[in-house]
Write a structure and sequence with these properties.
Blueprint lengths: L3 E7 L13 E6 L2 E5 L5 H8 L8 E3 L5 H4 L2 H10 L6 E4 L5 H8 L10 E3 L6 E6 L4 E6 L7 E6 L3 E4 L1 H6 L5 H9 L1 E4 L2 E4 L4 E4 L3 E5 L6 H7 L4 E5 L7 H7 L4 H11 L3 E5 L9 H9 L5 E4 L5 E3 L5
Parallel strand pairs: 3-4, 4-5, 5-6, 14-15, 15-16, 16-17
Antiparallel strand pairs: 1-2, 1-18, 2-3, 7-8, 8-9, 9-14, 10-13, 11-12
Amino acid sequence: MSVRELVVLGTASQVPTRHRNHNGYLLRWDSEGILFDPGEGTQRQMLRAGVAAHDVNRICVTHFHGDHSLGLAGVVQRINLDRVPHPVTAHYPASGQRFFERLRYATAYRETVPLAEAPVAGEGGVLARTAGYTLEARRLSHPVESYGYRLTEPDGRRMLPERLAAHGIRGPEVGRLQREGELEREGHTVTLEEVSEVRRGQRFAFVMDTRLCEGAYDLAQGCDLLVIESTFLDEDEPLAVEYGHLTAGQAARLAAEAGVRHLVLTHFSQRYGDPSAFERQARAAGFEGELTVAQDLMSVAVPKRR
């Protein structure tokens, strides 16, 4: 049975707190795992959350501020120590190549696992196409070069039992029709389109440090699950603009305008101790979908297909 869920490893911005580790998020997408922004302490948080190095197929770093990348050294070394049996691909801003190399080779260790480097440049674009998803990146607005990421599952088709029954199609014939696209029935051809409808693929986006910008809207558009920073509360919007971040209200309005189904707010400034304030401001901003204020070590399921 396939699993699609987000495992939250850390939710703090800039510095960890007593209750929040630095950033870290693992997206389980069927048989693959994509690790986003491994901040300091990610390896230990993986242990606490039941996430193994073997679960990681890709690493996506949005930018090279420490709270989003200092855990990369430990994660890479753990992948090699545990002899992960599959190659791992790393995506990160090309402008930070020197930081990636320093973190990858921060100390001596034995390399046992192929780690492919696939940096992102310019305005971003398609990074990978697999049977289960297309991975894209978009440029964001932050004092250092930063990118957000988006996974889009290919559209499929949903079989309609009443139409199948009307054509007398049942049992193994259904599978044959799905594979071949058409089926001969009593002198005429039944096509897959006649007995099915489009099943929209699921969509996930990960948007970290940024001001409001076109890239953030593009990433969020039509997402089933959006993970987005809300470093500040609305009363501190001038600070958010100055330092290249979002407030809870801004993140929620973006999600509402983009038609997001489930919004996950994270990356909270240490100045705030009451997480419920982020939820109140997000609701006041007009977001009516499912809403989660992230906490360390929680899991959030990707909503079921419509």
